[in-house]
Amino acid sequence: MRFSRRHLRIIELALLIWILISFDVNSHNSFVQAKESLITSEHNQPSATCSSDTNENGSAACSNSAPEDDIHVDGDSIKSDEESPKSLRDFMKVFNRLGTSWSHVFGSYLDVVKTAHGKDMEGDVYADDIESGVAMLQNMVAQALKEAGGEGTKEGQKWTFDAVPLQEFGATMDDVFVAFLRWSGVDSSNEDEHEACKLKGGVNKREIFPINVSKAFRRLTAYATWMDEQKSVLLDPPLTLDSVRQAKSLLYSRVTHDDCGRVVWWLDLGQTKFKEMKHLAHEEILRFFVWLSHLIMTDENAQRNGIMFLDSMDSVSFYQYMTMLPYQLGITIDKFMIGVTPLKTKLVVFLKRPLWFDVGFGLLSVFLPTRMKKRVSQPDAEQASIEDIVGSNIPVGFDNYNGTLAFDLITKHEEEKAAKSYVAK
């Protein structure tokens, strides 16, 4: 499918109408600015193109030659949300200053979102249980490796899974296969019914049998491809907790189990060291997210019950947020988390949101499926609101909440590794 300039024009008009109905940011001035932005974008913004070719997950590959701009944006000097975008025109201008375009950013995120769930397809093969599914995946991988010409070929190298940090997490490839089978086997029907969990978002409905092994293999193929593409970054040095400590120390992250047994990934931007992160190699940030993703991916509770992301934004300015991670790096990480890993996200929670975020998410949500929109929660910042979502398991030090959980899965992993090292000596 190819998006023409006319198609983009229609999308822009739809966005404008939605903004006028849903937001009263700048009253009459918003209308004038947004209208002008549609006129100027016709001449100044590049057209996004999407090829008819699709990747393993069935989403079109899109590209956009974003405009270059030599304006330097110092996020640290822009502390106030008053200087952040509050209209469509504002977003177009600031994305241009950041070296990209609004249509490219939204298009990229929408492409990522499309890959979240996978699909059942005609001709798919099924397994009656996990054990049979593992054997079938082993055979599928062996066949794919054979068809690729063996481990010595470029295509065959990805099926060796060299970059997967198995030793770090005491796992085997069969354990990884189980994770993908459980992802494929989650019953996605009637997701609003959560008898096993009364907290917001619920848990994965229990596995359905037979399990669609073909769907699991398609997801595994995307995983093998992504890990192979990033292999040079992930293997030098191999992914370990020690190798990602610097990034871990700058980006406040905690990983816990909540009262329903789901895994919760806590991110506190108020405790994130933005200035220091600017001087950290982008590869180190990517490595940390991949390491943390595998910690979660190999957790049985995450596989069975699903995961949640809880982000306290601390009213961060748009420029701080956008320059915390380079845009393309952010897309790469999102693609890995949403379209590659075998994890079912039950809820994404945003706290202490700045105005620009509410406006931007409003733009994006126009195109999100209803099921995806229902998985985003934007509560107030009261303690009771958080407890309605995760229960009582709040980490010590997270924002200004009265957390009591002193140890999370990261510290547990660290202690287990230290104990094994001590025994080995």
List the helices and strands and how they pair.
Layout lengths: L4 H18 L5 H17 L4 E6 L5 E4 L24 H10 L4 H13 L11 E2 L2 H18 L6 H4 L15 H13 E2 L17 E3 L3 E2 H17 L1 H4 L10 H6 L2 E5 L5 E6 L5 H5 L3 H16 L2 H6 L1 E6 L5 H7 L2 H13 L5 E7 L3 H11 L4 H4 L2 E2 L5 H8 L18 H16 L1
Parallel strand pairs: 8-9, 9-10, 10-11
Antiparallel strand pairs: 1-2, 3-6, 4-5, 7-8
Properties at a glance:
Phosphatidylinositol Transfer Protein Sec14p; 5-stranded mixed sheet; two-stranded antiparallel ribbon; 3 domains; alpha/beta
Summarize the structure.
Residues 237-409 form the CRAL-TRIO domain. The chain is of the alpha/beta class. It folds into three domains: 5-114, no CATH class; 126-232, no CATH class; 234-424, Phosphatidylinositol Transfer Protein Sec14p.
Structure description:
This protein has helices spanning 5-22, 28-44, 88-97, 102-114, 130-147, 154-157, 173-185, 213-229, 231-234, 245-250, 274-278, 282-297, 300-305, 318-324, 327-339, 355-365, 370-373, 383-390, 409-424, and strands at 49-54, 60-63, 126-127, 186-187, 205-207, 211-212, 253-257, 263-268, 307-312, 345-351, 376-377. A hairpin with a 5-residue loop joins strand 7 and strand 8. The protein is globular and about 55 Å long. The protein has 3 domains: 5-114, no CATH class; 126-232, no CATH class; 234-424, CRAL-TRIO lipid binding domain (Phosphatidylinositol Transfer Protein Sec14p), CATH 3.40.525.10. 48% of the residues lie in helices and 11% in strands. The protein starts with a helix and ends with a helix. Residues 1-27 form the signal peptide.
